[in-house]
Design goal:
single chain; about 475 residues; mainly alpha; 18 helices; about 85% helix
Length: about 475
C-alpha cells in the first residue's frame, strides 16, 4: 500500500505546479469576474460529476478487490456509470439557463451546457479509475493521473491563448479527461456492451447507504460558494472565494488520492481475516491526517504571500479565506478516511451518520453569517461543519474497530504547529522566495517530527524502501 500510495501521490502532486500555473494563468487572463464565472461553472458541474462516481466508487473498489474475476462487477459498474452520467448531462443541458438565472449570473448558462458534455466522459473515466485501484493497478492509476494533470494545463493555455476565454478553459478540461480515459482503458477494458453476470443486489447493498453519504458530502463541498452567490455575493467575491478554494484544493486532492488505495488494501486484508493488520493501517491512516496540521499552520502564516505569488495583488482579499479554509480541507480529509475505513469494514451505513448533521447546520450557519460577514462567514461555517464531521467519523471508527488517532501524535502535531507558524511569520519573503520558504519550512516540520520521535525505525525504513523502489522503477 505504501509503494502504491507513493506512486499515486507523486502523480497527484503534479496538481501543485500544473494547478497553480493554470490558476495563475486564468486569473490574469480572465480577471476576477471571468475567473468567478469559470469557478461557478466548474464548481457546480464538478459537484454533479463527483456525486455519481462517489456513489459507486467505494462499492466498486471493495467488490473488485475481493473478487477472483473483476470483469463481471467491472462491466456492470461501467454501464451504470455511463447510463447515469448521460442522464445527468441531458438534465443539466436543459436546466442550464434556469440555474444560471437563479444564481444571478445569466452568462453562466452556455458554460454549464458546454461542461455537460464532459459528464459522460468523467463517468466512464471514474469507472476505469476505480477498477484499476480495485485490482491493485496503482502504478497504472498514477500514469493516468499524471497524463491528465499535464495535458489539462497545456490544453487550457493553448485554447485560452487562441482567444476562447472561459470556453477555452472548459474545453481544455474536457480534453484532459479524454486523455485520462484513453490511458486508463489501455490497462483495463471492462465490457461496455457484453453482459456479464454479477449479482446486482450485492452491489446495491453498498451503493444505497453510500448514495446519501455521497450526495450530502458533495452538496456540502460546494454549498459555501453557492450560498455566498445566492445570498448577495458578487461574481468578484465568488472569484476571490474560488481562488482560495483552488489553493486548498491542491492538498485536498493529494490526500483524497490515497483514500481509494486505503479502501482497496483494507478490503483485501479483512476479506482474508487479517484484522490486526487492517486495524494498524486504519489507525495509521487517521494518524497521517493529524500529522498534516503543522502544514496547515504554515499555510496560515504565509497565506498573503502565497496568494500574492499565485494570483497577484488583485486577489489579496483571498488570503484570510485561505487561512480558514485550509483547516476545512483537513477536516474533510479525515472524514473521507474514516468513511473508507467503515466501508471496508462492511459498515457503509455508518458513513451517513458522519455527514447527516453537517448540511443542515451549514445551511443555517450560512443564512446567519454570510449577510453579516460575507465570504469570511461562509469560510467559518464550512470549516466548523467539517470539524463536526471529522469528530463523528473518528468516533464511528473507534466504535467499529476500536482504533483512533494516537493522542501522542496530536500533541506533537500541535507543538510543531507553533513552530511552523512562528517560522513563517518571522521570515517575510517576496516573490519566488515564497517557494523556497515553503520547502524549507516543510523540511523543518518533518525534521521536528523525527526529533520528537514520531516515526519509528520500521516506518522510516518502509518509507525509504518505497521511495527507493519508486526511484529504481
Amino acid at each position: 500500500m505504501l509503494d502504491g500510495t507513493v506512486r499515486v501521490l507523486l502523480a497527484e502532486a503534479l496538481i501543485v505546479p500544473t494547478g497553480l500555473l493554470a490558476a495563475a494563468f486564468l486569473t490574469r487572463r480572465l480577471g476576477p469576474e471571468g475567473f468567478g464565472l469559470f469557478t461557478l461553472a466548474v464548481s457546480l458541474v464538478s459537484w454533479i460529476e463527483a456525486t455519481m462516481p462517489a456513489v459507486f466508487g467505494r462499492a466498486t473498489i471493495k467488490l473488485v478487490g475481493e473478487a477472483d474475476d473483476w470483469r463481471p462487477v467491472g462491466g456492470l459498474v461501467t454501464r451504470l456509470h455511463l447510463l447515469a452520467s448521460v442522464a445527468i448531462a441531458i438534465l443539466l443541458w436543459l436546466l442550464a439557463s434556469p440555474i444560471a438565472t437563479s444564481l444571478g449570473e445569466p452568462a453562466l448558462a452556455p458554460y454549464l451546457q458546454l461542461l455537460a458534455v464532459e459528464i459522460p466522459l468523467l463517468g466512464l473515466t471514474a469507472a476505469h479509475r476505480h477498477i484499476l485501484i480495485g485490482v491493485g493497478g496503482f502504478r497504472e492509476r498514477a500514469l493516468a493521473v499524471a497524463a491528465r494533470r499535464v495535458s489539462r494545463l497545456l490544453f487550457i493555455v493553448v485554447l485560452v491563448e487562441l482567444g476562447l476565454s472561459v470556453s477555452g478553459a472548459i474545453l481544455g478540461s474536457i480534453g484532459a479527461t479524454l486523455v485520462e480515459l484513453a490511458v486508463s482503458r489501455y490497462y483495463v477494458r471492462p465490457p461496455l456492451l457484453r453482459y456479464a453476470h454479477f449479482p446486482a443486489r450485492r452491489l446495491w447493498s453498498y451503493v444505497k447507504p453510500l448514495l446519501l453519504f455521497a450526495v450530502l458530502r458533495r452538496a456540502y463541498d460546494r454549498l459555501d460558494l453557492f450560498a455566498l452567490t445566492a445570498l448577495g455575493g458578487t461574481a468578484a467575491q465568488a472569484g476571490l472565494y474560488g481562488a482560495a478554494q483552488s489553493l486548498t484544493g491542491t492538498p485536498s486532492s493529494l490526500v483524497a488520492s490515497s483514500q481509494p488505495l486505503l479502501l482497496a488494501t483494507l478490503s483485501r486484508l479483512l476479506s482474508v481475516g487479517d484484522s490486526a493488520a487492517a486495524n494498524q493501517i486504519a489507525r495509521d491512516a487517521m494518524r497521517a491526517i493529524v500529522l498534516l496540521l503543522p502544514f496547515a499552520a504554515m499555510t496560515v502564516g504565509m497565506a498573503s504571500e502565497v496568494v500574492a505569488l499565485v494570483f497577484g495583488d488583485a486577489f489579496a482579499a483571498a488570503a484570510p479565506l485561505l487561512a480558514i479554509l485550509i483547516f476545512r480541507t483537513l477536516g474533510m480529509a479525515l472524514l473521507g478516511v474514516t468513511a473508507s475505513i467503515l466501508t471496508a469494514a462492511g459498515r457503509p451505513g455508518l458513513t451517513v451518520a458522519l455527514t447527516a448533521p453537517m448540511l443542515p447546520l451549514a445551511i443555517g450557519g450560512h443564512l446567519l453569517l454570510i449577510p453579516w460577514l460575507g465570504p469570511i462567514g461562509a469560510a467559518l461555517v464550512t470549516t466548523f461543519g467539517a470539524g463536526i464531521g471529522l469528530l463523528g467519523g473518528v468516533l464511528a471508527v473507534h466504535r467499529v474497530l476500536g482504533v483512533a488517532p494516537p493522542a501522542a501524535t496530536l500533541a506533537r502535531s500541535l507543538a510543531v504547529c507553533g513552530l511552523a507558524y512562528a517560522l513563517t511569520v518571522a521570515w517575510p519573503t517576496p516573490d519566488l522566495w515564497v517557494l523556497v520558504k515553503l520547502v524549507l519550512v516543510g523540511l523543518a516540520i518533518l525534521v521536528s517530527f523525527v526529533l520528537l520521535g514520531e516515526f519509528s525505525r520500521r516506518e522510516l525504513g518502509a518509507l525509504s524502501s518505497a521511495l527507493g523502489h519508486r526511484t529504481r522503477a
